[in-house]
């Protein structure tokens, strides 16, 4: 009896681990390029704002 319960819980645990791994893999595959693109755009915006600040200081 106890062995059957152990097998059921082990099966449930392994199913959860496997499905979580698949979901994480799919999300990383789909959204990692988008995240990198947004970070690059954010860095470009920061760089351009720093350049404009430098130009304002130089013109004073």
UniProtKB/TrEMBL annotation:
Q: Which UniProt keywords apply?
A: Membrane, Transmembrane, Transmembrane helix
> Positions of the region Disordered?
40-60
The highest taxon in the source lineage is Bacteria
Q: Could you tell me where the Acidic residues compositional bias lies?
A: 40-50
Bilayer-spanning residue ranges = 6-27
Q: Where is the composition biased (Basic and acidic residues)?
A: 51-60
Protein name (database record): Uncharacterized protein
In which organism is this protein found?
Alkalicoccus saliphilus
């Amino acid at each position: 009896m106890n062995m059957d319960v152990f097998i059921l819980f082990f099966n449930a645990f392994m199913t959860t681990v496997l499905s979580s791994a698949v979901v994480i893999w799919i999300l990383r595959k789909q959204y990692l390029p988008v995240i990198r693109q947004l970070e690059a755009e954010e860095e470009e915006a920061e760089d351009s704002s720093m350049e404009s600040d430098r130009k304002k200081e130089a013109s004073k």
